[in-house]
């Protein structure tokens, strides 16, 4: 059986460039990619130990 881990990014609050809402989808996606890229090494390390599933929600 594969191991699982939870890695939560949250809403990005506290990250450089954070905004509560985005006027344009492209701006929000650029923020998301930049935030994930800043944690690339951590995400890769988790991926080497666990099976991963990406989940994105909007409330």
Helix and strand string, N-terminal first? HH
Percent helix range: 40-55%
Strand % is under 5%
Beta-strand segment tally? 0
Give me the Rg, rounded. Answer: 13 Å
Give the topology, please.
Blueprint: H1 25-38, H2 40-49
How would you characterize the overall build of this protein?
This protein has 59 residues and is mainly α. The chain is 41% helix and 0% strand. The chain starts with 24 loop residues before the first helix and ends in a 10-residue tail after the last helix.
Supply the key terms.
59 residues, mainly alpha, 2 helices
Brief overview, please?
With 59 residues, the protein is mainly α.
């Amino acid at each position: 059986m594969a191991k699982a881990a939870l890695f939560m990014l949250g809403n990005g609050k506290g990250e450089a460039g954070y905004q509560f809402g985005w006027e344009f989808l492209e701006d929000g996606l650029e923020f998301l990619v930049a935030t994930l890229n800043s944690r690339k090494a951590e995400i890769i390390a988790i991926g080497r130990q666990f099976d991963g599933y990406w989940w994105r929600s909007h409330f």
